[in-house]
Please model this.
Amino acid sequence: SSFYPEHVAYILGSLCTIDLVEETDSLHYRLYGSAIAERYGRDLTGTVINESAESLTRFFAASFRGALDKGLPLYTRYLPPLESPVKDCQRLILPFADEGGEARHLVIAHLPYRPPMGSIARGISLR
Model:
């Protein structure tokens, strides 16, 4: 209840929110930002994360579960497979607790990764 999307309206398209549904112990996308949907070519709002799917989805699910289990923020950066429309990505995963103090919600900033100016990584082509 302490997260107010209207306070971060300027980046709302780059955020997604995930809820842990206790009855099924599943992760559910409550919001999948429009900028993320545009980058990936699909909107996952309202869907359940298939934790037994392809390796990249399993990586995301494990990252989300880890942040929830530990109740700590997590930063990830990765290069998706070559066939992906996304060429680079970074995420800041922030857990939020429910009224009982248990981490049950995530707010995730999902942004392209761009190496700092002058970094040797700037010269590496991501295809």
Remarks:
- Confidence is low (pLDDT under 50) at residues 119-127.
- The beta strands are 15-21, 26-32, 74-78, 89-97, 103-111.
- The helical segments are 34-40, 55-70.
- The longest strand covers residues 89-97.
